[in-house]
């Protein structure tokens, strides 16, 4: 099953199994990480509480009782549409991060799926965007409005698809951002947005193409000689 081939380090498991109930937040975080973010924190807490907060026993309980009954959707990362390799952005700049993803499975995604921030740098306040249910092998672009950090440097964050019931699935997709004073990406996106908006606005035609009065042939006056002759 996709996403279930987690290589568990025995020493790490032993270490966290001995932490006790005073480290619940740490246990929940580690349980989630070991599962490859397949389960949300509430689900992790359920299995840990059921096993008296023993991490090793909770992992076993998860695989024993949950895995056989879970039908995990499939998602594959295709490519970065924006924020690709070698692109940089100035500090404190709004930008749009877009990924191209695919339903690489044989079944359509269930309704209510979303893309969620799961770790690293978040780049703004948005931590989730809804995604339409893709048909098998269908490809789609998913975008998130973000803001670059205030300091120059390299930053990275991870996002994953998630079902309405809190089950994470598919590839981990990344934001790898180079923040540099003088970076051009934000300016490029803003210019692109301006151009798109300009092209969708109605344009005024040249004055020589349209008469200022209705139903009048171009180049001819609408007044007859009689209309200006004195009586």
UniProtKB/TrEMBL annotation:
Stored CDD domains: NBR1_like, UBA_CF106
Region (Disordered): 198-231
Composition-biased stretches (Polar residues): 219-231
Chief location: cytoplasm
UniProt KW keywords: Cytoplasm, Immunity, Innate immunity, Nucleus
Any one Gene Ontology cellular component term annotated for this protein: phagophore assembly site
GO biological process: innate immune response; macroautophagy
Residue ranges of domain Nbr1 FW in the record: 82-179
Subcellular location: Cytoplasm; Nucleus
SUPFAM superfamilies assigned: UBA-like
Molecular-function GO term, any one: ubiquitin binding
Subunit organization: Interacts with IRF3; the interaction inhibits IRF3 binding to its DNA consensus sequence.
Biological function: Negative regulator of innate antiviral response. Blocks IRF3-dependent cytokine production such as IFNA, IFNB and TNF. Interacts with IRF3 and inhibits IRF3 recruitment to type I IFN promoter sequences while also reducing nuclear levels of the coactivators EP300 and CREBBP.
Protein's name according to its UniProt entry: Protein ILRUN
Lineage: Eukaryota, Metazoa, Chordata, Craniata, Vertebrata
